[in-house]
Amino acid sequence: MEPKYTIQPWSYSSLSTFKQCPHRYMREKVVRDIPREPDTDAIIYGTELHKAAEEYIGEDKPLPPQFSYIKSYLDKLKAIQGEKFVERKMGITRKNGVLEPCDFFDKEAWFRGVADLLIVDHEKQVAYVVDYKTGKSSKYADPLQLQLMAACVFLLFPEIQRVKGMLLFVVCRDIIKTSYPNAEKFKVFEQLDEVLHRRTVAYETGVFNKTQNGLCRGWCPVVDCEFNGRR
User: Fold this and answer.
1) Same structural domain for residues 94 and 169?
2) Cα dihedral 24/27/150/121 (nearest 10)
3) Taking the model in full, what pTM does it have?
4) What is the pLDDT of residue 19?
5) How many domains does the chain have?
6) d(CA 96, CA 126)
7) Strand 174-181 with 126-133, pairing
8) What is the pLDDT of residue 128?
9) Which of 80, 117, 162, 171 stands the most exposed, by the fewest C-beta atoms within 10 Å?
10) Do 72 and 180 share a domain, yes or no?
11) How far is CA 11 from CA 65, 88, 219, in A?
C-alpha cells in the first residue's frame, strides 16, 4: 500500500507540535490548509532580539537601545574561545539506520535544526550551543532542543568530545545549562524512537488523531476542531 503522505523532515518545534496534537500538526505541516496568523507582539519582539544578537556577535554591530540589557550576556559569549557561527543551520540524513550530517536544505534531510549560536573550540574539542529565549519564565524549559543540536554538532565536527548547551532566558535572567558527551551523541534519537515511529505511521496511514490539550481553548489555529475554544 502506498503511503498516504510523503514523510517530511522533522525539527524540534514540529515534533513538539505533533506530540501536542497530531491533527494540528497535519493541518499546519502536511496539508497546510490553515491560514498563517499574524505574528503576536511577543513573537515580533523575539525575532528582533534574535536578529540583534546575531548581528552583535556575528558582525559586531551595536545593539539597539531596547536590547542593551542583553549586552553583558552576549559579551560573555563573545569571550568564549572558539569559532563562532550565528544562526547555524544543520541537517541530518538517515539511510538504512545510519546518521550522517547534511546541508540544512538537502532534499534528503531527515532532521533539521538551527542553533542561535554555535561556538566550536577545535583545540579543546568542546563546543557550545546557545538558544536565546524571550519568555517571562524558565519554569517549563525543555533542554531537548539542545540535545538535538548537540547531536548535529557531533556529526558535523567529529573531533568534538563534549557539547555544552545553554538556554539563555534573557528576560527573566535565567540560564539552563546542559552537557553532552560524544559517546552519547545518538541517545536523544533512542529516546524519541516511539514518537518518531508514531509520526511515520501517521504519514503512512493518513491518520493524525486529535488530542485535546491546554492549547486548544485559546491558542490553536485549527478553529474548525470541536475542541477549539475560539469557534
Assistant:
1) yes
2) -130
3) 0.93
4) 97
5) 2
6) 29
7) unpaired
8) 98
9) 80
10) yes
11) 33, 14, 21
